[in-house]
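Pilot study result, target chain (477 residues):
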Amino acid sequence: MAQQAISAEQLEQFEAEFHGDLIRVGDADYDNARLVWNGIIDKRPALIARCRGVKDVISAVDSARENDLLVAVRGGGHNVAGTAVCDDGLVIDLSEMRSVRVDPDARTAWVQAGATWADVDHETQAFGLATPGGAVSETGVAGLTLGGGIGHLRCKYGLTCDNLASVNLVTADGDYLTASEDENPVLFWGLRGGGGNFGVVTDFEFDLHPVGTDVAICLVFYSGDRMVEVLEAYLDYVADAPPEVSLLTLSGVIPDEEIFPADTVDELKIAIAGCYAGSVADGERALAPLREIAEPIADFSGPMPYVEFQQLFDEDYPAGMRYYWKSLYLDGLSESAIDRIVYWSDVAPSPLSTVDVWQLGGAIAQVGVEDSAFAGRHAPFLLGVEANWERPEDDDANVEWVRDCLDDMRQFSDGSVYLNFPGFLEEGDDMMRSTFGPKYKRLIALKDEYDPTNLFRLNQNITPSENAQADGRECHE
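Predicted structure:
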């Protein structure tokens, strides 16, 4: 269906029932409001609806549906693919809905959809509690959770979406629903890994676990000359690692003059990073072998407040820099796979880019494959390829490096991807089908039920069936 512009009369009606800020082209704060974290994204929406509460979200969804507006939904964080903003349409902006409420006795937290993991950690760590979040505190809760959520506590406590108790959301019809194991359970199944396809989630209820406030962390850097040795040792270590340990490796130049000796700043490096979700003493003993693989360039391992560890990589991902990230689930770390990881790390056009290998398994694999929409429980490792660079003239080279790396590494994968690292979603439906496999039909059925006209399509999109789209148009015309 062709997109239409909202008329002055329709805008006036919308404004009358909207309590947040409506930001238009030409307003003083428009250029700042339309910006997102990823500097490569430059889009100009017709209207930004900065919501203050659920009623504002309902009004925005109703206005978009009734006026055939293109819709982007913005949470509180990164959205590396850039789908949180659009050209000419309506942005439903939740970034000011950031409240977090903790019940320490029940070990639960209610979190609004505009919150970041820094907001969550700030409140939950007051009680020595946490739920699995991401690896950067400025990441938004909503996008990470709906895409699955792979963070620093994953092997002990699972994915972020595994710790969801319930969600509230506004559907394409403007209905306000709760989804949980007991209420709308099929929708709840789809929301845990199926992305933002079924509505605008306004708040999440999470289960919490005892974590911190101090944890033992590993952050040790080795020379790139030892990368094969380090990756082989990493492979051996995680095969028998206790579930409290969740690790990843990062390989790239990482040119930080403040933390590396001068003669190594511009050289290739590999780091092992992670934490132990248990006692500090047990964690230091468990992580010690990772610090002894070779002579480190630098070693920052030791006890650290959990909140600080969650923030440790924040400065490496400043707002406005240019980012392009893609991923693949790996079948393993064979000798050939390790050799290719070394190669692609070495030829990255930007010294800020990394090739990452995330340890999976543990609690992630203990949840049944069919128990949620999330695709990836079968894999022992996730490959994340992060192009991070500063100059627009380097866009093509960095994007090409990521795509070439992924094309090469597919020989070690079934082709499924972690949908929070999706590039620019350029593979479309092919990527979704290869990732979800047999579960994709079930997700299409959910999309047919809750969003048959694909109002919410600026995301890791599940396209409704043609019959559903036709029926949806008849309902709204």
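One observation from the pilot: The two ends are 11 Å apart (CA to CA). A full batch analysis is planned for the follow-on phase.
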